[in-house]
């Protein structure tokens, strides 16, 4: 029983990381109608920046503060220089442009840090395990769950209780009308893109002490993020949260029940949801 409880908590932790990755992807698509295939590459940058800051300073908390902001700034620069020129183009061009960006980031990562994966130490304050009776669970993984939940709640407040959130939600419904009402729509696009990508960078930092960092993780993460978005529904905050938790729990539990099929069952869950609801659990047609 303790083993399954352990795996369930692992699944929740993974699910919250997947949520942080996919919620940015779904927000960007919901408002900008832009398909970002470079999303996993920004996660990759976040994880390597975490490794670098920890290697130089030994301070994980500094990495947790710096890396997501640095990734968001890089995303803002990329959006201003290149991506905003493609918003009006068909999705085929979005895919080609962002795939190119992802490949450039991956090759630069290999050139700077090498092709061999790196490990990031768990911060000293979170080393060891949390004990409750006969059940033991790593403190860092528990921190990831709680911290991600706080970020998810803060993001919900931002999107549901602020003027910025109202503009994002209105823009996802009718961008032209929001623009005619006086909103600087391109500025809104840029901030939304940077926010979504910054969350992917944050996920890269949180996952680094658990899974390490390597230059090919971006492709893997991108695939999982799209599975989460398909399950939850494109453009839905709630869908990203529920989809992330479903994928995390399926992956974690299947690692115990059927290790060889853990990755396969993620796509099985996606196929099952598509059969029941083609637009995702919380998506709209």
Automatic annotation (TrEMBL):
Keyword annotations from UniProtKB, A to Z: Amino-acid transport, Cell membrane, Membrane, Transmembrane, Transmembrane helix, Transport
Cellular component GO terms held in the UniProt record: plasma membrane
Location in the cell: Cell inner membrane
GO BP terms, alphabetized: amino acid transport
Top-level taxon in the UniProt lineage: Bacteria
Topology of this chain in the membrane: Multi-pass membrane protein
A molecular function (GO) term: transmembrane transporter activity
Pfam families in UniProt: BPD_transp_2
Transmembrane segments: 12-34, 41-58, 64-83, 95-116, 140-159, 188-210, 222-250, 262-282
PANTHER family attached to this UniProt entry: ABC TRANSPORTER ATP-BINDING PROTEIN, BRANCHED-CHAIN AMINO ACID TRANSPORT SYSTEM PERMEASE PROTEIN LIVH
Entry similarity comment: Belongs to the binding-protein-dependent transport system permease family. LivHM subfamily.
Identification of the protein by name: Branched-chain amino acid transport system permease protein
Gene source species: Amphritea atlantica
Organism taxonomic ancestry: Bacteria, Pseudomonadati, Pseudomonadota, Gammaproteobacteria, Oceanospirillales
